[in-house]
């Protein structure tokens, strides 16, 4: 039976910035429209965090029963390492997604009921990433999904539920968040290219190959910081987002140096930290202008 620490590791806490940062940034975008609402932000945060934990457990379950995680260089996988049964991990995934659904229903009820349909699509996307007969994560579409769900939907959804409208500032932030969220997955899949090839998991990194995947990672970070300059046309205070640039440089260093395997694990942590610092800085900038 897995220990509590192993369950926590299986939830992949390094990915939590992918859920937290877009909500912070989206709340900043709502503040830009003079409509920030703390309790709606907390509901959006509950949806995002529960959903990403559910995604991670569902991914662990689906990859584990397929044998994809039998040999890994990355963090612990519960099913693949046989420290937890597939049924237990599936239950954890379902419970997490159910919590996300409940918080999402409440948020939709107090903002716009049509958002229930968006939430249903998000949950379906979470499961079908590695679940089902034709998981899109095995077809090289994982980064696209992350860009959409943890970039566009998370940021603009957070802004909309608080302000009941979106604007170009929110859209620019959403694209920046999507780019950084996708960069986290690119780094993860870069590390796993050798084992994914063997198991038949054809990620975007497998399709592009090692060299082009490294360029993609750096390009995604560059997009996020280019958009920081764009946001400065709304308010010069947005320049404080550049405070995250040294973290991005540190995150990209192992990628630029062509390191592999376990040496790429810190890239996930540092990219997530870059996202979080950037989101907080830009949100504050938009709130104070």
UniProtKB/TrEMBL annotation:
Localisation: Cell membrane; Membrane
A single GO BP: vitamin K biosynthetic process
Reaction(s) this enzyme catalyzes, per UniProt: an all-trans-polyprenyl diphosphate + 1,4-dihydroxy-2-naphthoate + H(+) = a 2-demethylmenaquinol + CO2 + diphosphate
Major location (coarse): membrane
Membrane topology annotation: Multi-pass membrane protein
MF (Gene Ontology): 1,4-dihydroxy-2-naphthoate polyprenyltransferase activity
Source organism superkingdom: Bacteria
E.C. code: 2.5.1.74
Record key words, sorted: Cell membrane, Membrane, Menaquinone biosynthesis, Transferase, Transmembrane, Transmembrane helix
Transmembrane segments: 38-58, 88-106, 112-129, 136-156, 168-187, 215-231, 267-288
GO CC term, one of those recorded: plasma membrane
Pathway of action: Quinol/quinone metabolism; menaquinone biosynthesis; menaquinol from 1,4-dihydroxy-2-naphthoate: step 1/2
Family: Belongs to the MenA family. Type 1 subfamily.
Function: Conversion of 1,4-dihydroxy-2-naphthoate (DHNA) to demethylmenaquinone (DMK).
HAMAP family: MenA_1
Name of the protein this chain belongs to: 1,4-dihydroxy-2-naphthoate octaprenyltransferase
Species assigned in the record: Mycolicibacterium celeriflavum (Mycobacterium celeriflavum)
